Amino acid sequence: MEACERLVDTGLSQITLLSVGVLVISAALALIFFGNRYSIKTLVLVVGVLFSLTFISSPAISFAQAVEDDCPTEVDNDEGTAVLSLVDDQGVIQLPDEDSSTTTIYMAILNNDQHEAGDPIDWETVDLDPDTPGIQSSIALMHPDDEVDDYYCGSITVESFGILSVSLSFNCFDGEFDASLEIPLDYTIAPFAYTAQTLGGTPATAPATVTVIVEADIEASIVLAENDHASEFGDCGVFESFSFNVLTNDSTSEGSLVASTVDLNPSRAGVQSSVNIVVDGTVFTASVNGAGLVTVTNVSENGEAPPVFFYTVENSNGGVSNVAAITWSCEGIF
Fold first, then answer.
1. Which stretch, 41-55, 60-74, 95-109, 250-264, has highest mean pLDDT?
2. What is the pLDDT of residues 192-201, one digit of tens each?
3. How far apart are CA 110 and CA 124, in angstroms?
4. Burial classification of residue 8, based on how many CB atoms lie within 10 Å of its CB (0-12 exposed, 13-18 middle, 19 or more buried)
5. What gap in Å lies between CA 161 and CA 277, rounded to an integer?
6. DSSP readout, 175-188?
């Protein structure tokens, strides 16, 4: 832009000098070759035409060349002007009963959000309370009616890759089940908003709203992915790796499960068969083969327990499962 400003300030004077030079040379040549054959009026007319052509063409050529070489007026700013749009989400969670202390579901809230230029969303910027300064990655699960909160409580947490973990506990304030309470069923937890930004730093144009509905009975999904957990016993020391087939306890009521569709990052479009997570400087990788065998490895060879990984799977009819978790624990002394 500075080059353009300098051109505007000095260009016309330089062009004028050039035009005057051409004028003088043209007049001299005209007198030498045509002085004895044409009148002074004719010579003046010829010189005037040459001067006019020079004055008109030179600025256009000079300015166009300078703009093209030094300061383009149009910049490809697709990524700079592209916006990040977040889409509202809704989840349904099973009502806990007296025999189950907590019910948890996982929601891939980022998989329907989109940046116009394709800049991936930075899941570590997901903020569950945009009105509070900083990034809130966990909030209390609340209901608008305070009396209902006497029966249920829970939390909502952003996990790896922006997966939302929604946990609900029954009658958790006094820790005991009271059968005489009239438990309200099929209600909606107070909706909450979230924001995020892309890896390139583009913020969302507006927050999106997440609604969680609590139901006493939930119809089973056509494609059901169950959570998977691996345990190690003894002196665990530094975690190295573990493997197991995540499809063993999964099911579908239509068609068959397709192992090649196991997606280790449900927050992004497509099927990710390999992902990395960094926790306090330790790099963990997860990969899945064509049979559904998932292997989690500690690449850095330090650190104790791996983080939670997630996956979805499809059936042969294209139905997509719920989000399921892959966890590991050591039943021993680190």
1. 250-264
2. 899 999 999 9
3. 12
4. exposed
5. 9
6. SS--TTS----SEE
